[in-house]
Amino acid sequence: MFLNAILLALREIRRNLMRSFLTVLGIVIGVAAVITMVTLGNGATRMVAEQISSLGSNLLILRPGQRLGPGRDSAGAPNFRAADVEALLTQVPSLKAVAPVVSSTVTLVAGAENWSSSVTGSTNAYFVAGNWKLAAGRQFSDEEMRAGKAVCVIGNTVKQKLFAGQSPLGNAVRVKNFSCEIVGILASKGQGAMGMDQDDVVLMPLVTAQRRLTGKTQDVSTLMLSLKDGASSPRVMEQIRQLMRERRKLAENDDDNFNLMDTKQIAEALSGTIGTMTTLLGAVAAVSLLVGGIGIMNIMLVSVTERTREIGIRLAIGALENEVLLQFLIEAVALSAFGGLVGIILALLACLGLSALMGMPFLFNPGINLLAFGFSAAIGVIFGYVPARRAAGLDPIEALRHE
Amino acid sequence: MSSGNGAAPPLIQFRRITKTYGQGQAEFQALRGVDLEIAEGDFVAVMGPSGSGKSTVMNILGCLDSPSSGDYLFQGVPVQDLSRNQRALLRRHYLGFVFQGFNLLARTSAQENVELPLLYRGESPEARHRASREALARVGLNGWEHHTPAELSGGQQQRVAIARAIVTNPLVLLADEPTGNLDSQRSHEIMELLVRLNREQGITIAMVTHEPDMAAYASRIVHFVDGRVASDERTAEPAPCS
Ligand SMILES: Nc1ncnc2c1ncn2[C@@H]1O[C@H](COP(=O)(O)OP(=O)(O)OP(=O)(O)O)[C@@H](O)[C@H]1O
Ligand SMILES: [Mg+2]
């Protein structure tokens, strides 16, 4: 009986190829859309979350000028000096570290290899502020920082590019026009936002960078401030603002000529936005799943007259109600399951491709796969099976007369 | 099956069968108390004007429809006491039905249509194949096995329907105007086939027809008028029971 039902179900699927194809298509589209959207959204959220955690403790960035963004520049506003760093550290107790930062993109040469990278000049506070750990070697000594010695700490990517296989510690790298001794190697952080490589960096003492690369000697245009754990960032930000206004001798009704931003807030806002987008896309996808479902329902209802007559014929020539129902159930399950599987495969291929393209992590989410598959299968089975159940409960002659 | 033993109940017995369609104002009594007995091996032609209830009687005989009142005994067993599944098994194993409107499965080849009753009987693919080709040959349709109903003429579809009803060698063959769409030569060929089935295999036949020519092949002619049996005449002895 079961084999017969499978045979009959497969025959009906083959005979009504268009109907079967449309049913499968509805399910494929719905399932693929939902899974793709949600998986990509999850990947984007994860990416931002990783970025936030790689920032480490709460990090503030202080720059001269009124506000970041187009049309505003820092031309008129003075840069920061070493005294500002001291003042911040002593007068704002919630700050863990204050790192003055200058940076420049230069070509590095070691042996026959060369590589273009970003060089950052700062103090040891930068390791704290940037949440950098050392994989090998050491930080800068006080002497090196004060005298502006030619020493540097390199990121993992720079190490790979210039010193494939061997340990660079103690070796020299040529930075622009001077030779610099490598004293430390940073632990890898991996890929950052939008596929940016965070390990493609070189650190050197602030004074060294100022003298030999950026040309300025005394001041810096960026301070990175790291908060102590548990400090309330709005309150600390207000303290810093007041202190800087005082130190820059701004009058009561002058605008700030510096700009303080909280990177974590930005990142959190960004991840919030992405979360909202994911929800939105998920909703759009859910609608497409629903539309797919309605499409299936429509196809099934359109064919219900013909199918009711078919059921009448089968009953009239001696089929049992259960045999007819089993056939219809197998038909519905086969189509829905096939559609669901194709949808999942399509979605996974699309997700793999798209997340590679966008430099996002690919997160397989079994929950959403199961949910989408279950929902579409339920639609297929309900709309394929329920009308059949009604028809199979009729007297054969009533089913045959159905219009 | 029962032998010539006089104590055995007739194969089919209708006792004051009525059938009412619709309700209230639209109520219509298609059968108004039909008493009818059909013995095994009989060949009954059912005649009567259009709307007199012939198809209604056939549907009830075929266990496709239930009477509104009265008793239908099949081999002495009241059909209304059987479950849905038992009635389905009765249709499967004892009855063959030719519908006035053919009722073939769409987009399904003639051969697969004819095989269907055998499939529900659980016959092997080889047996189904052989029997269905043979049945199609008997109604003059060899060479048409792979055509679907849409590719067949009305008369050819009717013959596929007949092949489907006889392929199981049923105990009773119920045919509602089996020659309604056929030319007279085909009609006579089909009637000769039915007579052979009746005489040689002892298949009991009830057949609706409007044509006296066709009714002449039967052993007994029952006339319906307004949902009642108006006359019932025997024209030949029933076939000896097998
Ligand atoms: N499903 C139905 N609902 C309501 N009335 C019906 C139904 N089926 C049949 N009837 C009525 O019952 C009566 C008998 O119908 P039936 O089909 O038995 O006639 P018939 O003798 O087979 O006619 P014909 O020779 O035209 O096939 C008709 O008057 C018809 O209108
Ligand atoms: Mg009729």
TrEMBL record, chain A:
Membrane topology per record: Multi-pass membrane protein
Main location: membrane
UniProt cross-references to InterPro entries, sorted A to Z: ABC3_permease_C, MacB_PCD, Macrolide_Exporter_MacB
MacB-like periplasmic core domain span: 20-243
Cellular localisation: Cell membrane
Transmembrane feature ranges: 21-41, 280-304, 324-357, 363-386
Domain of life: Bacteria
Domain ABC3 transporter permease C-terminal: 283-396
Keyword Transmembrane on entry: yes
Xref: Pfam families: FtsX, MacB_PCD
UniProt entry keywords in alphabetical sequence: Cell membrane, Membrane, Transmembrane, Transmembrane helix
PANTHER family: ABC TRANSPORTER PERMEASE YTRF, MEMBRANE COMPONENT OF TRANSPORTER-RELATED
Family of the protein in this entry: Belongs to the ABC-4 integral membrane protein family.
Name of this protein: ABC transport system permease protein
TrEMBL record, chain B:
SUPFAM superfamilies linked: P-loop containing nucleoside triphosphate hydrolases (SSF52540)
Annotated ABC transporter domain residues: 12-239
Family annotation (Gene3D superfamilies): P-loop containing nucleotide triphosphate hydrolases
One Pfam family in the UniProt entry: ABC_tran
GO biological process: response to antibiotic
Keywords noted in UniProt: Antibiotic resistance, ATP-binding, Cell membrane, Membrane, Nucleotide-binding, Transmembrane, Transmembrane helix, Transport
Cellular component aspect of the GO annotation: membrane protein complex; plasma membrane
Xref: InterPro entries: AAA+_ATPase, ABC_transporter-like_ATP-bd, ABC_transporter-like_CS, ABC_transpr_LolD-like, MacB-like_ATP-bd, P-loop_NTPase
GO molecular function, one term: ATP binding
Signal peptide location: none
TM helices/strands, residue ranges: none
Family indicated by similarity: Belongs to the ABC transporter superfamily. Macrolide exporter (TC 3.A.1.122) family.
Identification of the protein by name: ABC-type antimicrobial peptide transport system, ATPase component
Organism of provenance: Azospira oryzae (strain ATCC BAA-33 / DSM 13638 / PS) (Dechlorosoma suillum)
Lineage: Bacteria, Pseudomonadati, Pseudomonadota, Betaproteobacteria, Rhodocyclales
